[in-house]
Amino acid sequence: MRKINNTDIPTDPVVRREWIKFQLRLRGWTLSKLSRAYGGERSCARKALDGRWPKWERIIARELDLPPEALWPERYGESDRVNGKPKSVAAQRKNTQAA
Q1: What is the pLDDT of residues 9-29, one digit of tens each?
Q2: What is the pTM of this model?
Q3: CATH class of this structure's domain 6-98
Q4: What's the chain's Rg over C-alpha atoms?
């Protein structure tokens, strides 16, 4: 399987979501199968495609041999980082509510 280049990743979030699912299928995964393989409910990986869930974002990215930041750049902007690491979901929600 050819290594994915960051320029191969669609920029449109809707197209990117389908592209991620397609790339996983090429590697023998469905979102449900991936969720169960990593000990989650069958919908865990799907929920990561729809919203911020760092654990499952990392799992999906690992299976595609990419950093999560490459798959979801809008979720990993500099304002969403503390000491170079992504903020927790709770911290991000708190900042959003305060604004």
Answers
A1: 999 999 999 999 999 999 999
A2: 0.74
A3: mainly alpha
A4: 14
